[in-house]
Recover the amino acids of this structure.
């Protein structure tokens, strides 16, 4: 009887330099197991491997492979070389085995009848730290460690047990099982081959056991990135790519058909969620890995079928039995949410927070921090604090309130819940026609407005479509064309998104707690709530986007702490990694600014304020070691590039002449703008007008005196920017800068951001800077600061009551819907009033007086944006100005050619209803109503404190005709089609500009057109046909469409620049992309 | 940041914010509610309108409206006349440059006697002014270029033998609604029939004060137009003597009355109404060229009226025309009532302006024509003829008028007396008051208003 121990062949697969090869080989040589042979497979790059092995293991066999086809393929190759072996011991070249490891593993294999045995794996440098004691796995192929990260080995895991996965490194596999399974799958070159082998072994009924007494140290040079991934077929893939695709392959082949379909479908949904989340947070690598894994799977479908057929032949365990061996649920999803709740988003998505700057603590401080001998026995960190300790007196440690992730998550959840409660009615309530809440047109129509050759604004305009329509239409794509969702999303989520932006803005400058407080402060600033209550979606977009814009401006201007890592080395445009270069970051900023500017052009002024503010602040306090130069060039490049990205708007501005500056906003009436004390509080509305409105600015003020060091530098910049913003806002509010009147509310958004920044920095100063100072005025200021913050939060809660942040339930405009005349010929309504209350875009007639028109009824999606170039619509502005100056008493006659039937003078956007809704009155110039009252051809139909409505007695429709021999105009056609029967020999006049763009086709033939010295086209209907039918048609070269197309193309090209040129090149040509390694960067997020 | 750097930054920020706060808070901007008025405004107008009311065909002395084209181009006037009985007449007038033309409501003489008339004139272009002149040629009132939403007047008399009414014309296409309040020496009165009083579009009507306020002297009226705008003129018939009261669209703390007669046999009173809830402490300064008169003081209770007699007054010698200035601590309504002991005619103090048109529409010549600088600084003004054979400036490089000084226009423009020429007086700032009286006996009891193109 043969009593010899079963033969074990240890296979070490080494690649490249193999830094631990000698140690691995030596540890195997030192094994106390007699029947152990050593085979070293040099995978690809085999320089000096035989010599190195021979030096420590002269009896070892070395097999050199020409190509590195991966770990699995090398093991398969080794298995083919060996005959008569009972076990294979597959080893990486960066392991170190305890001398009895092999023996213990073989014993365990026999004792438990296991097919695969895995040892206890500990850290290479510190054998006390456990790495693996086998692994579990969920149905989606996601492995799960059985030990905690950094868990110390006290013997607590030393129990032999079944596991699902034997993690790679050192794996003992029964030779017959290995043969049955046909070895490793060569398709899996790296990362995941252990999971695949174990899964198939489980399916085949083999048992996998961990033998914890067998101890192996593993350096994990591949997983930790110490060594690059070099196997064939992996050059274009990151570790994440490989891991994802191999997991997917295992799932796609490891289950029976029905289970496979269900599991893949579920996994697809989870992956879509993860992709969305990754895209939202800029984690493009992750998104790319997920998408790439599915693409790879589809590409490998033939191999998938082969594997499935093979596995079905070996299948012993049913899907249900297999699933019982796994952990339930989706462990990745579960882990994500648990981590999110406990430790914040950054950790949840797997990115460790940046390294905190090292703080120097002296020994006393360290002791005082409660981490000492006694702390190990007491849960209370203050167990060993001695009251008399001098160190304790110096500590002045900030409160522990909201220092743990759990408490922060709880508070954030509560506030988020409160916000949702406060916004509950915005979900389904009818949105009133106030601010910019005019009902949006359909998705397709909104695109059409962007490409349109003609818009009905004013008396008609051939100016290029405003890019805001493009942004809206693009956004509409994400809600599947349900455009009505967009304003609701903006109303409900803009402020929270902005608050999140503030949280990210202060990253690296303040603790998580301080950032959360700053975010809350931003949300509690009056500007957000007031803009919701006024329906100012455009400003809300700014509120949401501004923190992200300012953060990137600070990073590019090298404001201390905003660029923690240097930009990546230059990467060619279109290659992956270009985004993290300086050019890429600049382009991201430009695109961000362009998107927000398209909705609210005053954003560009705000950007200029930020840049100028940083420059001015540096005059007082130069930043040490900043490499940024050329602020003017920087600002110019931003403006020029944004202008290119918003080309239609740029063209509009260029041709707007004296109205060019009106692109930033229209002058509001100096009598109705907030006073300086309101501006100091950031108030433009009803929220924040009482005494507590001072609390947040007061808390920001405290920050200025509390901050030190880098925090102070950032605070001074915030202070300068806030000051410049306030000064500019005050000057604009008094109309002292002429027609340059950037939207006050957009500027107040920047002011609010700076205040929130100061508050965040102030709290951070409480945590850090204050501990260095002795008791004095700073402590008093700190106390006051905290008190003001807490008190400021209370009134905010009262605004949650209405469930709509006091957004009116009804609007003035909608109450006028019954004033429409008959629809024959179409009609226009002229809206006059302060720009802050008129619910559509128009042009400035005088300070505090905007004029805009809507066609055939109330304002809609087509009137959301107006080009600054009023063009022919100047006739309306001039007529109103004439009336204001007392130069005409026939305004109705002047407006009749434009088809204006009704003039609406608005003093507020919504009616004041006592006890129901409170609406700020922004009165139109009082002289206006007097002037309109003096017009002999207008009659006052309705007058309330909110609105005055005049009807034009000379109205004759937008399209009218005179009968032969008569001069009386009568409406013709219908408002919807501008076509219909005409009278032979009549003259048709159309209030449509530009006159040259329109033609009247009578029975399919164009009629001669004249303008007779006016702006309206006149068409003479030929007398010949007795019953002519006419149609007004637009004949315009689609130049606007081409401009819009060019603009979209520009966006597309730049989008390609973010790595997609490389991706698409690979997709279409099959050429291999050149991966340019890049160092990890802060901007990767 | 070191404190050495921090302090300058804080200082700059504080100074910047402080200066901005102070500068922007110094003067709170007000919402402009007044339409620009004046002759200069209308000169380049696309179209203008004139509204006149108050003329009557009563007692066989129908008034007339005279239009004068101040521009150097002809103007087409589209005239609509409507009586209080609803009879209308439309016509057109082609008014040559600098020409004048009158129309009388006799064109509507088909209606019953006692009719009052409203006249609306649409003018293509600007520069045309109008004056309505009573048939007696003893009272005039300019036509208005726009309606008003507030109107105040006082001094009406409903004593036996007198009557007073407000002639109200709605020139707009909007039915107007007004509330009228009455102030008397006994206090405030808001007759129910004067509340929510409706005036249909393009109609003429009267509000007869005597129906609600019987046998009362010095009746003040405040009209608030709730909807639309109106042209209103007060018509007072005192012992058979007709006078028009222009009224004012706003109350004021100060009034200038440069030509108040102190002649023997004449009667001149300052009638005051206080439409506020505060007692008005009124000071009347009377300046006579050779005499010094102490300021006279008068208290006017809230929502009531009072008067101050200038002539006859033992404290004020009979020495020609007195230059009277009325100051009050609260905004009040002031009117000058002149006449004899048996009758009084009302005239509203002029509002300071920078342009006046002076023309003798009655052909009687002026007994006095003065220009007063109401401001505290010297004002330069020029006078020019616009319809004479040699149009042009007649005051050379301009006349400097010291603060508070009243100058006789006859001295500055000798040709003004008995002239048919029109004189346009323009000042460097709107602080001139022009006052004129017609020849009368006793002297100075017929005060007429210049045309200010309002």
């Amino acid at each position: 009887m043969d009593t010899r121990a079963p033969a074990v062949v240890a296979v070490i697969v080494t690649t490249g330099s193999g830094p631990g090869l000698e140690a691995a080989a030596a540890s195997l040589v030192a094994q106390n197991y007699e029947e152990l042979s050593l085979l070293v497979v040099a995978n690809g790059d085999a320089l000096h491997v035989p010599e190195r092995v021979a030096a420590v293991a002269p009896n070892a066999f070395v097999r050199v492979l020409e190509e590195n086809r991966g770990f699995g393929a090398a093991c398969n190759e080794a298995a083919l070389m060996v005959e008569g072996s009972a076990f294979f011991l597959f080893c990486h070249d960066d392991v170190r085995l305890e001398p009895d490891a092999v023996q213990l593993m073989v014993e365990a294999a026999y004792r438990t009848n296991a097919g695969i045995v895995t040892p206890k794996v500990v850290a290479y440098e510190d054998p006390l730290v456990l790495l693996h004691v086998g692994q579990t796995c969920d149905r989606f192929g996601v492995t799960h460690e059985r030990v905690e990260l950094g868990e110390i080995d006290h013997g607590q895991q030393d129990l032999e047990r079944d596991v699902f996965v034997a993690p790679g490194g050192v794996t003992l596999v029964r030779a017959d099982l290995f043969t049955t399974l046909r070895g490793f799958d060569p398709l899996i070159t790296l990362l995941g081959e252990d999971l695949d082998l174990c899964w198939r072994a489980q399916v085949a009924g083999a048992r996998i056991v961990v033998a914890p007494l067998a101890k192996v140290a593993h350096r994990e040079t591949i997983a930790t990135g110490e060594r690059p991934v070099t196997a064939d077929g992996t050059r274009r893939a990151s570790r994440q790519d490989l891991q994802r695709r191999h997991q997917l392959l295992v799932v796609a082949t490891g289950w029976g058909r029905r289970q496979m379909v269900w599991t893949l479908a579920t996994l697809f949904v989870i992956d879509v969620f993860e992709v969305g989340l990754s895209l939202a947070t800029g984690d493009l690598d992750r998104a790319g890995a997920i998408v790439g894994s599915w693409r790879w799977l589809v590409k490998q479908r033939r191999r998938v079928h082969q594997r499935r057929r093979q596995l079905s032949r070996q299948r012993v365990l049913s899907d249900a039995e297999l699933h019982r061996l796994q952990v339930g649920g989706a462990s990745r999803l579960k882990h994500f949410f648990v981590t999110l709740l406990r430790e914040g988003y950054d950790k949840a998505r797997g990115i460790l927070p940046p390294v905190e700057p090292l703080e120097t603590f002296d020994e006393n401080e360290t002791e005082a921090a409660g981490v000492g001998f006694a702390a190990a026995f007491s849960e209370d960190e203050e167990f060993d604090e001695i009251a008399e300790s001098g160190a304790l007196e110096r500590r002045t440690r900030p409160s522990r309130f909201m220092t743990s992730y759990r408490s922060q998550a709880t508070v954030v959840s509560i506030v988020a819940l409160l916000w949702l409660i406060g916004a509950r009615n915005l979900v389904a309530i009818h949105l009133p026609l106030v601010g910019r809440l005019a009902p949006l047109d359909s998705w397709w129509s909104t695109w059409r407005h962007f490409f349109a050759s003609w818009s009905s604004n004013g008396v008609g305009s051939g100016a290029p479509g405003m890019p805001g329509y493009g942004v809206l239409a693009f956004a509409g794509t994400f809600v599947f064309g349900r455009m009505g969702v967009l304003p609701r999303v903006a109303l409900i989520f803009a402020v929270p998104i902005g608050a999140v932006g503030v949280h990210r803005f202060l990253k690296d400058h303040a603790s998580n707690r301080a950032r959360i407080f700053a975010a809350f402060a931003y949300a509690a600033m009056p500007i957000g709530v007031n803009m919701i209550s006024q329906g100012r979606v455009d400003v809300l977009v700014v509120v949401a986007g501004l923190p992200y814009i300012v953060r990137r401006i600070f990073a590019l201007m090298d404001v201390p702490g905003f660029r923690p890592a240097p930009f990546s080395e230059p990467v060619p445009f279109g290659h992956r990694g270009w985004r993290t270069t300086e050019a890429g970051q600049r382009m991201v900023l430009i695109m961000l600014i362009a998107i927000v500017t398209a909705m609210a052009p005053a954003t560009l002024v705000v950007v200029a304020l930020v840049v100028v503010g940083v420059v001015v602040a540096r005059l007082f306090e130069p930043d040490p070691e900043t490499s940024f130069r050329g602020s003017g060039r920087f600002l110019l490049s931003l403006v020029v590039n944004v202008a290119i990205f918003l080309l239609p708007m740029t063209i509009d501005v260029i041709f707007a002449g004296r109205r060019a500056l009106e692109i930033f906003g229209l002058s509001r009436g100096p009598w109705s703008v907030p006073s300086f004390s309101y501006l100091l509080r950031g108030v433009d509305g009803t929220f924040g007008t009482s005494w507590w409105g001072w609390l947040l600015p007061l808390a920001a003020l405290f920050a200025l005196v509390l901050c030190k060091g880098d925090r102070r530098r950032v605070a001074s910049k915030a202070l300068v920017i806030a000051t410049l913003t306030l000064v500019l806002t005050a000057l604009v509010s008094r109309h002292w800068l002429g027609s340059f009147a950037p939207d006050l509310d957009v500027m107040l958004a920047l002011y609010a951001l700076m205040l929130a920044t100061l508050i965040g920095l102030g709290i951070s100063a409480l945590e850090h800077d204050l501990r260095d100072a002795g008791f004095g005025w700073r402590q008093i200021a700190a106390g006051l600061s905290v008190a003001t913050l807490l008190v400021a939060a209370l009134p905010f809660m009262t605004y949650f009551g209405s469930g709509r942040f006091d957004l009116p339930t009804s609007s003035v405009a909608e109450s006028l819907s019954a004033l429409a005349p008959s629809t024959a010929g179409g009609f226009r309504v002229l809206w006059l009033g302060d720009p802050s209350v008129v619910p559509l875009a128009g042009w400035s007639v005088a300070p505090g007086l905007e004029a805009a028109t809507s066609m055939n009824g109330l304002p809609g999606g087509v009137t959301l944006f107006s080009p600054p170039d009023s063009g022919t619509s100047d006739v309306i502005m001039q007529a109103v100005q004439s009336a204001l100056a007392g130069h005409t008493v026939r305004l109705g006659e002047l407006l009749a050619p434009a088809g204006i039937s009704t003039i609406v003078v608005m003093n507020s956007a919504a009616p004041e209803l006592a006890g129901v809704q409170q609406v700020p009155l922004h009165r139109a110039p009082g002289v206006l109503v007097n002037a309109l009252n003096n017009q002999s051809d207008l009659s006052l139909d309705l007058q309330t404190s909110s609105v005055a409505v005049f009807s034009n007695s000379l109205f004759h429709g937008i399209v009218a005709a005179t009968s032969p021999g008569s001069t009386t105009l009568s409406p013709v056609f219908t408002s919807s089609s501008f076509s219909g029967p005409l009278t032979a020999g009549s003259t048709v006049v159309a209030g449509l500009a530009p006159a040259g763009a329109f033609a009247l086709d009578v029975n399919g033939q164009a009629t001669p057109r004249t303008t007779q010295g006016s702006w309206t086209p006149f068409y003479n209907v030929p007398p010949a046909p007795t019953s002519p039918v006419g149609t007004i048609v637009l004949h315009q070269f689609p130049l606007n469409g081409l401009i819009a197309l060019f603009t979209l193309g520009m966006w597309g090209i730049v989008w390609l620049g973010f790595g997609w040129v490389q991706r698409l090149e690979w997709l279409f040509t099959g050429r291999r992309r050149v991966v340019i390694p890049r160092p990890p960067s802060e901007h990767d997020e | 940041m070191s404190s050495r750097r921090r302090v300058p930054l804080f200082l700059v920020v504080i100074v910047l914010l402080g200066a901005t706060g102070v500068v922007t808070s110094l003067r709170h901007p007000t919402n402009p509610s007044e339409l620009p008025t004046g002759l200069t405004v209308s000169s380049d107008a696309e179209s203008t309108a004139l509204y006149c009311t108050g003329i009557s065909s009563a007692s066989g002395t129908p008034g007339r409206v005279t239009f004068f084209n101040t521009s150097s181009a002809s103007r087409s006037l589209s005239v609509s006349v409507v009586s209080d009985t609803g009879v209308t007449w439309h016509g057109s007038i082609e008014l040559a440059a600098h020409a004048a033309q009158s129309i009388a409501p006799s064109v509507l003489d088909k209606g019953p006697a006692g009719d009052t008339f409203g006249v609306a004139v649409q003018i293509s272009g600007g520069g045309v002014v109008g004056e309505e002149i009573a048939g007696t040629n003893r009272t005039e009132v300019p036509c208005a270029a726009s309606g008003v939403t507030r109107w105040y007047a006082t001094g009406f008399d409903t004593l036996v033998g007198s009557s007073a009414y407000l002639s109200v014309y709605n020139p707009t296409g909007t039915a107007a609604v007004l509330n009228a309040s009455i102030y008397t020496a006994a206090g405030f009165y808001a007759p129910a029939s004067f509340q929510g009083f409706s005036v249909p579009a393009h109609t003429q009507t009267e509000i007869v004060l005597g129906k609600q306020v019987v046998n009362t002297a010095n009746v003040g009226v405040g009209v608030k137009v709730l909807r639309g705008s109106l042209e209103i003129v007060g018509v007072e018939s005192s012992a058979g003597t007709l006078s028009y009261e222009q009224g004012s669209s706003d109350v004021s703390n100060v009034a200038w009355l440069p030509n108040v007669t102190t002649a023997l046999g004449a009667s001149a009173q300052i009638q005051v109404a206080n439409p506020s809830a505060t007692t008005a402490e009124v000071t009347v300064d009377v300046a006579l060229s050779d005499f010094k008169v102490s300021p006279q003081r008068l208290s006017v209770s809230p929502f009531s009226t009072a008067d101050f007699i200038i002539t006859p007054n033992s404290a004020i010698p009979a020495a020609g025309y007195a230059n009277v200035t009325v100051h009050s601590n609260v905004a009040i309504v002031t009117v000058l009532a002149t006449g004899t002991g048996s009758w009084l005619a009302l005239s509203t103090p002029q509002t300071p302006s920078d342009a006046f048109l002076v023309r003798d529409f009655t052909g009687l010549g002026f007994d006095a024509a003065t220009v007063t600088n109401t401001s505290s600084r010297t004002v330069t003004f020029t006078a020019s003829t616009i319809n004479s054979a040699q149009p042009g400036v007649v005051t050379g490089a301009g006349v400097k008028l010291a603060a508070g000084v009243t100058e006789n226009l006859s001295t500055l423009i000798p040709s003004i007396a008995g002239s048919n020429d029109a004189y346009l007086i323009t000042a460097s700032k709107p602080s001139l008051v022009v006052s004129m009286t017609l020849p009368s006996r006793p002297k100075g009891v017929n005060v007429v208003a210049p045309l200010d193109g309002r």
